[in-house]
Design a protein that fits this description.
It is an enzyme of class 4 (lyase). Belongs to the MqnA/MqnD family. MqnA subfamily. Pfam families: VitK2_biosynth (PF02621). Pathway: Quinol/quinone metabolism; menaquinone biosynthesis. InterPro entries: Menaquinone_biosynth (IPR003773), MqnA (IPR030868). This protein is of the alpha/beta class and 246 residues long. The chain folds into two domains: 146 residues, D-Maltodextrin-Binding Protein, domain 2 (3-Layer(aba) Sandwich); 87 residues, Periplasmic binding protein-like II (D-Maltodextrin-Binding Protein, domain 2). The protein has nine helices and eleven strands. The strands form two sheets. Strands 2-1-3-10-4-11 form a six-stranded mixed beta sheet. A five-stranded mixed beta sheet has the order 7-6-8-5-9. α3 packs across α5. It is globular, with a radius of gyration of 18 Å. Bound molecules: the ligand C=C(O[C@@H]1C=C(C(=O)O)C=C[C@H]1O)C(=O)O. The site of ligand ISJ has 18 residues, from α3 and β10.
Amino acid sequence: MERKVKVAAVSYLNTKPLLFGFRNHPVMDMMELSVDYPAKIGQQLIDGIVDVALVPVAVIPKMKEYHIISDYCIGAEGPVASVCLFSDVPLHDIKRIYLDYQSRSSVALLKLLVKDYWKLDVEFIPTTGDYEGNIKGTDAGLVIGDRAFLQRKVSPYIYDLAEHWIRYTSLPMVFAAWISNKPLPVEFIQQFNNANGIGINNIPAVVAENPYGEYDLTTYYVKNLSYPLTPSKKQGLNKFLWYLQQ
Ligand SMILES: C=C(O[C@@H]1C=C(C(=O)O)C=C[C@H]1O)C(=O)O
């Protein structure tokens, strides 16, 4: 490729381990990096504004062409902590649910669980900006990313969507993956993958440079999130994409 590869990543704490190794890495000579919230970078990849992005996997069915280019993803094999339905009342008393405008995968996952697993009769309310203050009474809300850690301290009922997906399907959940909208040089992909892995193998160093008081990041990076895109995660991803087509 003549020009630099345009890469977009998620701007949350969950992505710090994946980005840790890019600083001073030779792959940076081949690419430029930007960050934003997941729904935004999903649209950038669909629109061709970027070549590669850590996109919500729920955007895959909207792409004309896609290639999974990395052995790493944002996944979970148990409770993820940062993708939850927050409520003042128990699940079956919820009347309406605010959807997180920053999310695509978790919104699709929530709708799937509500309809097929929990079988709730609720109204969904789309959002475009701050809405967490509206989560009260029988109005619940989906909140993802770093903002979920703040909401964990506010809402008495917390339903972890990765945990419930795993209970429902017995498969891990993949929320986001590094996806390109065109074929890319093998040399770039190898270097990109190498850069991804550095932080994953150095979690204490990632935690040390990201002081955070709301949640224990070692727990988050080691126990909640699971980054390697293993065969069982690919199975989980395929199952999720299958549900999206239904
Ligand atoms: C675990 C998370 O995974 C994410 C959830 C996404 C989504 O819902 O579309 C997309 C990217 C990831 O940031 C999180 O944001 O907390």
